[in-house]
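just leaving the lab so this will be short. below you get a single protein, a line of residues and a line of whole numbers that encode the local backbone shape. id like you to explain what the token line says about the fold, in plain words if possible. thanks a lot i owe you, the record is right below:

…
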Amino acid sequence: MGDASTSSDPAAPRLDQSSRQEFLSLRGKDAKFEGPTEEVERILRIQKNYYAVLKVKKDTPPNEVRANYMKASRLVHPDKCSHPQAKDASAVVNQAYDTLSNSVKKTLYDRYVDDAGDLDAPDGVSYADWEAQQAVNVQVPAWMEAVLRIPGGGICLLIILLPVTLVLVVLCLILFILCLPVRLILGLCCGIKLQPPQRERDGDEAEPDQDTDPVIINIPPDVVVDRPAQSEAASSGDASKKIAAATAEKGQQPGSTPKDGSYHPPPPV
């Protein structure tokens, strides 16, 4: 089945070994794929090289990358390929396309290609292992790395950095002591309390309770305010005055007996 005659591509005739290698080395839109079994074995053999898996180059347009991915994915799909390792090959194809179709992942993968060198080496580091190492590794400055390579350089660096750290701690303490009198003077003399800035309240928070003190209205002295009790007393007084005036006109004293024998009581006071 390894012969080119079993290729699923009808345009692939029987070829000798050199022509077959040239036929299979095409990239991009000109790439040719063999049968499902051959593709599974090929993909698992070069699974570290995502460019070779999809038969593309670094500058291949995204549409051609997707076209080659669709071709390879259909050939090695576990539902269509009976090879026992078709599932593994399909996972490699999916991972290759996911990496090369993303600009950020592709840039990181290109760094892996440059660092790894020969991707076809059996003892080479896989992309997943390399990516895990990059996440763990800490970027050390070049000058520090050069010092650490010197025998005893780590101890010398520690001797230098320890006094610097102590000096920084002492400076922070001095600054705190110098700022303390300023805070006290502002608080005692000026009544200013230095507080850390507070975040503004959200608009939906409840507003503080407003003052409930009674409202005092200044009334001018020439304005008469009508009060119920005083109004009743004033009306009673006016009625008494009217009765007294009417009695005086008739020549009678309040509370006296008139000539006709009728008695009129004095008005209530």
